[in-house]
Amino acid sequence: MGVMPIASSTVTSGRLLSLLSLLQVRRDWPGALLAGRLGVSERTVRRDVDRLRELGYPVQAVKGPEGGYRLEAGGRMPPLLFDEEQAVALAVALRIAVGTGAGIEEAAARALATVRQVLPARLRQRVDQLEITAAGRDTQVGTDVLLALSSAIRATEEVRFDYDSPSRPAEGGPPRRVQPHHLVVRSGRWYLVGWDAVRADWRTYRVDRLRLRVPNGPRFTPREVPGGDVATFLAARFKGSDTADAWPCQGEVVLDLPIADVAPFAGDGVAEAAGPGKTRLRTGSWSWPALAASLLRFGCDVAVTGPQELRTAFAELAGRAAAAAQPRSPSPAGRGRCR
Hints:
Elements (H helix, E strand, L loop, with lengths): L9 H16 L5 H8 L3 H13 L4 E4 L5 E4 L12 H13 L8 H14 L2 H8 L14 H13 L3 E5 L12 E11 L2 E8 L4 E6 L3 E4 L16 H9 L10 E7 L3 H4 L7 E4 L5 E7 L2 H9 L5 E5 L1 H17 L15
Antiparallel strand pairs: 1-2, 3-4, 3-7, 4-5, 5-6, 8-10, 8-11, 9-10
InterPro entries: CBASS_pafABC_assoc_protein (IPR051534), DeoR_HTH (IPR001034), HTH_11 (IPR013196), PafC-like (IPR028349), Tscrpt_reg_HTH_DeoR_CS (IPR018356), WCX_dom (IPR057727), WH-like_DNA-bd_sf (IPR036388), WH_DNA-bd_sf (IPR036390)
Protein name: HTH type 11 transcriptional regulator
GO molecular function: DNA binding; DNA-binding transcription factor activity
C-alpha cells in the first residue's frame, strides 16, 4: 500500500489510480472496456499502462480478438491500492492477527505500522480507537507447519506426522497417516480436521502437538465432514457429540437463586425466571455426572425437573462426596498434596 507518484497532471494521476483499481478487481480487461470505464481513448489507456509498468506494476498484454490487459504477480511487491473500507478492514485484520497463534505477531505489527503510516488522518483515528487484547494464547504454531498442511489440503495428499497427545505421547513409533481436509483456528488454537482411513473415522488434531514427516503420502478423494459444515462439526466434537452441535446430555433444573445470579454463568444454557428468587435453567454437558457437577457450582438448592439420568447422576455424586468427606489415613509425604 503506497502513495502514487504525481504524473504530469492531477487528472492523469487520478486516472492512473482508477486504472490500477480496475486492474486489481478483474483478471482480464479488454482495452476498449477499460477506455469506456475511464472515459478516454484506447491510446490513452496504452500510455497509462506504460506509466504503471514504469512504477513497477507487472501489467501484461492479453492476446485475443479484443486484446486487453492483465495485472500479473511480479517478482516484488509493488504499491497496492485499497479503498477506505478495504484499508480499515486490513488494519483490523492485522490487529487481531496476534490472537491466531500462527507465529506472525512481529510481521503483523510491522505491516500494521506500514499501513497506518499512509492512512488518511480520519481513517487512522478509526483504526487507533480499536483496542484488542489477545487472551489465552498459550500455544504457538510455526507458519511453515500451517503452510505445509494447507498445501497438502489443496493437493489432496495424505500427511504423516508424530503426535504428542496427553494420553499417548509420541515415542518414535510409526507416524500417524491422515487425509487432511480442513485447517481451523478456534480460540487461538489451530486444529487439523482429517479422515483416518485406518480407523475409518474423522479425527481432530491440535496442530501445535504434531510434527510433520516428509514426504507426504498418496493422493486421496476428498469427502464431506458430517453435517457439511466444519465449524459446526468441530463445535460438536468439543461437546462430545458425533452429530449435531449439541450436548449429548441435556437436563433442566430449578435453582434457588434469582436469575441475575444465574444468567451470567449459564454459558450456552437457557435461563429464565421461575418465581421469586428462583431460576429455571436448561443446559447440557458431555456426561451426566459432568452436568450434575457443573450445576452444583452455583452453591444453592437444586430441584431436578428432568430427565431421570440427571437425578441418578446427582445421587452418584452424593455418594462419592460422602465417601470423600470421610477421614482417611495420611498419604505418604509428597503425594496427594496441593501445592
